Amino acid sequence: MSLPSFLLEILVCPECRAPLAEEIQDDTHELRCTGAACGLVYPVRDGIPVLLVDEARRPS
């Protein structure tokens, strides 16, 4: 399930304030920071973005 486009337009990375890009692969739904220096990946659980830096992972 994709997030509404109006929501993606206003969401930013809480770490660096860069826009977030939605990524959906199989059963994994995430929001990836588009900032070159940051790149944190935030989970989306039950359709709700979890925008906590402590819950984010560094890209592999």
Automatic annotation (TrEMBL):
A family per Pfam: Trm112p
InterPro entries to which the protein is assigned, alphabetical: Trm112-like (IPR005651)
Family membership noted in the UniProt record: Belongs to the UPF0434 family.
Protein name: UPF0434 protein KCH_30750
Species, as recorded: Kitasatospora cheerisanensis KCTC 2395
